[in-house]
Amino acid sequence: MNINLKDFQQLTDYDNVLVVDEKGIIIFNDLADLNVLKEIGLRPEEFMGKHVTSSYKNLSDENSTIMNVLKNGKAVCNVKQELIMKNGNLFVTINSTYPIKDNEKIIGAIEFSKHFYTKENIQSLDKFASHKVYRRNNTIYTIDNIISVNPKMEAIKNKIKKIAMTNSTVLINGKTGTGKEMIAQSIHNLSDRYGGPFISLNCGAVPPNLLESTLFGTVKGSFTGAIAMTGLFEQAEGGTLFLDEINSLDFYLQVKLLKAIEEKVVRRIGGDKNISVDIRVISATNEDPDVLVAEKRLREDLFYRLGVVQIDLPTLAERKEDIEKLLEYYIDFYNNNMNIYIEGCQPEVIECFHRYPWPGNIRELKNAVETAYNNVSTNHITIEDIPKRMREYHESPTSDQMDNKVESLKEAVEQFEKELIMKELSSKNGKLTETAKQLGLSKQLLKYKIEKYQLG
Asked: What are 19's strand-pairing partners?
């Protein structure tokens, strides 16, 4: 038996593998992310043992790449197909398909594919596993997804590399949207536990009366309606348990959590035996842990146990030099996974993003890019494509500016910005690269502002 792959060079560019027999019946299907496919109307059990064209409205033996390869025995590479699911959802694939032969007899075909999504499916991409090697452990992020040139974030990335090698508990402190789960997944995937599961729970999203059973499990019949259920501590065996909004736990559960972490033993509700667990616990809070302890909302002993290592994440407003890098990252992400291509942002958009305070942090920036992809009509994101609250945001004038009765806020901001650019240009002898670095701007944006204020 042989598979002719002589013309196929870059298997890593593809996310999915499909194998059919000589009749086009699916015998193997490895999908990059089951959650994404489920959202657009696909289920793995609907594929196996079925004809390759059966799940699509617009696919037939005549236009299917697989059926054509089975028919003529010739490989086809990088073919674009628009597929319409039975539920009406549409997505685009790029396929490379090859015949499988046994002594020149065609006994099947193998197809490598990558899915691209339409604007209607854009929210599905939040669950897309870009790192295929890790997709089986419930993660979608590694340290490479932490995009930053900010010194604080660079120090955090270095810290992650060190602490990943230990089993110490980690407490991540950061405002909503700063990327706490990304940090936790990065630690897991750099550790020796990467082959084990990453189990995540937002403690604030589960009703208090269900939290204990969710964490520790239940024994059948332990209370009315109780079934045998494995808790998250057991599910995370050999891996990492990530508990977000840890301050949402009531004091009783905080005591039980402390005991489980200390002794690495849990007991299901209604159970009579202890269960040893080998897990690492990473927790997170969007409030200052010291304040939580002072206000008696987080037990002091639990805080010390959870925070053997503490990571404090800066807000996006504190790392605005990362805005353009993050924009490049998200534009590249959507370009590679959607049936649409954007080259970049107009300078006015970047200027607006630098002015905006980002209360929702990186998550809000990502959502702004998503909004733009739904609105864009050219190959560049314009000021009209981004959320209204951002393009209409105005900074408050300083007290000095108010005392001097500057005609408008816009003029006050522009005057301050103009003077600051002039000062830095002078101190750097007109060198744009050094000036841009000092101001936390890109060279492109600095040039735009120099032209805008006629400083050239």
From this structure: 28, 110
